[in-house]
Design a protein that fits this description.
Protein-Tyrosine Phosphatase, Chain A, five-stranded mixed β-sheet, about 20% strand, globular
Amino acid sequence: MTNLVEATSYIRSRYREIRSDRYDAFVRKSKLGLRAPVIHVAGSNGKGSTCFYLTEIATKKYGDSVGTLYNSFFDLANEAICLGGKPIKEEKFLSWFNKGLPLFEKFEVTGFEILVYIAYNAFEEAGVSLAILECGMGGSDDPTNIDGLDTRLALVTNVSLEHTEYLGTTPSEIAWNISGIIKKGVPVIIGAMDENSLDALREVAAREKTSLTRVERPYLPHVIQGIAFQFDYSPYKGIVLPTLAHYQVANACMALEATKNCPLLALDEEDIRSALSEGTIPGRLEKKGNVYLDCASNPAAIESLYRCIQTIGRGRPVHVLFGSKTSSNLSVMLPLLDDAASNVVLTSFQDEEARGEEGYALYIEDHLYIENPLMALMHLQMTYPNDPILITGSATLIAEMKKAL
């Protein structure tokens, strides 16, 4: 490929959820490996945000010698692979992409498996001091989870009924799959989850003879100056996150707990405070004028977003523009949005899996549908010029609207 746009298009065309049948053979043939110490993050939701906060903290100590792999990107594929919190350069991305292209074709690997290949080679070449890895789906068979990883800390953000066709049909079965990132003697940090999932993780931790630490609940999270959340998390007082996304407090607490359990993240309190107060996460209640963008693409994410709608409204009604893929569970997601927002307008977007008017057939009677998302946004802005508007649903829709705004 001659440019990043072409490479991104190629990767998107292969971005399916299931692991390729020949991935193990691809790993052997390509001699894929990663020698840097690893912090491995799995879970149903919040993985990417937790990796972001971990990266913000780690770069205070290691600078550009922190490699981060995310399982998705908004615009260009190099956004998923960062050094020192910044996407790797286009020429470096294309160098490894083109080197691996014959093997990508031969072994028919997925888009995320391509990103893993590029990330691990880029991190090896840079000699990173720490690699922070976000799983794509599950843990046991996730492409990031190759033999020989020097895992120093494993984090499981939460467990919910997602990807049940691949990971299991109950939370405990999904937890068993996610537990594949737990290694012998490596500390494990877990977020909030049901008792069955917790029992599954406890059993794996006991078998691997390692400690399991549950993240504490933050104390008194509250909005300050209408632009940020402030909370206490022992031993830290008055931690500030520059976001109105209440759900990010839990993800930041995962990172804060990691600083207490992993010597690689040992920093002065002032550096930790500074790290969390500076960074904002793209596509997570990202604000553009009176428009907010949040890629909540599954029921658990919408449930987390539900709590934020009143916060961003600040006494005014909030109007939602929502677009989803055909695989999304509308029967759960739409009622939550209907309950929290003043009204919900349905839309579509440029993706072969995007839900169109027929896909919303059961809901059209109670919701306005405008196929073009830009026209839908203009309708909302003209009708409610002084009210906040929330665009949510598929990450593809969010990426499309980010460009437009």
